[in-house]
Design goal:
The protein is an alpha/beta fold. The protein contains 13 helices and 18 strands. It is found in: Cytoplasm.
Length: about 425
């Protein structure tokens, strides 16, 4: 059968899609990039925000209409939405539902659905030998590598621990075997993934850690750069910071969500640090890794957030000067503590105003920080080409750079001189390739 997979949400969902596509292709199915060519459509879903959930529900409705018209045969749901509302999705018309930790069973579930069975499969199929799985990678030079599944933090606003389950680390040997295969296939950059990537190895209780994994992976011939996402502040160790500082292949980039600058709101969120502790961590990283790029996340309009709370967030954003700031308006997620016990009492228009204030502030910060790049020569790997014919890539600090060149290869290492600054990407001229 011809199968089209639509992916929503985070990089872990992208990685899961690559695994499902690889398994299905190995079983003789054809993965297609065009919905109009598909017999089967799988929506790999995200529920971290109400907007994400609304998107896939809207897509499901459109797909069921196409199925009724005979344009497609089966519609399946995978990912976090499957875990959250499996029964409802089947009632709505989905033919099969596959949990976020059940993706290894995708071919079996599809076969059952094709025989006419309505299937809900939520069992944990994550194994200790993930490196042997077939995958359909979206990039030839970069690969996502999930090293830990789940999260134990239970922030009051977050549905992830309920949909992805508790933390479960892959054995280091298995991860390294996957990285070695990737290097042999020509991959030069890898990103280690986890809902809480810094917790990697804690559950194994054998001394395994993210820092040790980075050092081991960097020894594999062909691997040139190593990234990791996403970090929880109190799980970032001195060992990890020192590793990023000393290992030339470790990207000098930390993504550390702060979520709020108000200690009162942080307590309500069950974030296990204060604004002062977060600032101390950022200061420590910048002292040990002077060239480090630090980005963050903020949730605007959490229940009971006052103007004073918001201004405390504004203040810490001004003080810490993040290279990038992902902003989201709070939306209640059914099943979370915040949804159950806290009233969503910040008016929508207030949330939007606060969001826009932070957006404008971050634009100013971005432009100021980007000015440091002017006339500098940076090294990057070519990631692709825009519709306007510009090549692009990112440096070791995760800064996106666009430039003109002719006939470059994806994954090629180049040097680019920065000639123009914006609040977003940088623009430059090719120095050498």
């Amino acid at each position: 059968m011809k199968i089209y997979i639509k992916t929503y949400g985070c990089q872990m969902n992208e990685n899961d899609t690559e695994i499902m596509a690889g398994i299905l292709a190995q079983k003789g199915h054809q993965i297609v990039d065009d919905l109009d060519q598909a017999d089967v459509v799988i929506l790999n879903t995200c529920v971290v925000r109400q907007k994400s959930q609304d998107k896939y529900h809207s897509a499901l409705g459109q797909l069921l209409k196409m199925k009724k018209e005979g344009k497609i045969k089966l519609v399946g749901i995978s990912g976090c939405g499957a875990n959250l509302e499996a029964e409802q999705l089947i009632k709505d018309g989905a033919d099969f539902v596959l949990g976020s930790r059940s993706i290894l069973a995708v071919a079996e579930v599809l076969e059952r659905a094709a025989s006419g069975e309505k299937v809900i499969y939520l069992e944990d199929t994550i194994c200790s030998d993930m490196s042997s799985l077939p995958r359909s990678r979206s990039s030839t030079h970069h690969a996502w590598v999930t090293i830990i599944h789940g999260c134990n933090r239970f922030c009051t606003y977050c549905i992830v621990p309920y949909t992805r389950g508790r933390e479960k680390s892959r054995p280091m040997e298995d991860v390294l075997a996957e990285v070695k295969k990737l290097a042999e296939s020509g991959v030069k950059e890898i990103t280690f993934l986890g809902q809480n990537v810094d917790a990697y190895g804690k559950d194994l209780k054998d001394g395994t850690s993210l820092a040790k994994l980075i050092n081991k992976a960097s020894e594999i011939e062909g691997i040139e750069r190593i990234w990791f996402l996403t970090s929880y502040p109190t799980d970032i160790t001195d060992e990890l910071i020192e590793t990023v500082a000393k290992n030339p292949k470790a990207a000098k980039s930390f993504h550390i969500p702060i979520q709020s600058g108000s200690n009162r709101i942080l307590r309500l969120m069950n974030r296990r640090y204060t604004r002062e502790q977060f600032a101390e961590l950022v200061e420590k990283i910048r002292k040990i890794v002077p060239q480090a790029s630090i980005s963050s996340d903020v949730i605007v309009g959490f229940p009971t957030e006052t103007e004073e709370d918001h201004q405390q967030t504004v203040e810490i954003v001004k003080t810490l000067q993040f290279e990038r700031l992902n902003l989201a308006i709070y939306s209640p997620r059914p099943g979370t503590v915040a949804s159950k016990y806290f009233k969503d009492d910040v008016p929508r228009e207030v949330k939007v105003r606060r969001l826009n204030e932070l957006l404008e502030l971050q634009k100013e910060i971005n432009k100021k920080l980007n000015e440091r790049y002017l006339n500098q020569v940076v090294e990057l790997f070519v990631e692709g080409k825009t519709k306007d014919g510009l090549y692009y890539g990112r440096d070791i600090r995760n800064k996106i750079i666009l430039f003109k060149a002719s006939a470059l290869q994806i994954g090629q290492r180049v040097l680019v001189k920065i000639t123009r600054i914006t609040a977003g990407p940088l623009y430059g001229e090719l120095v050498t390739s």
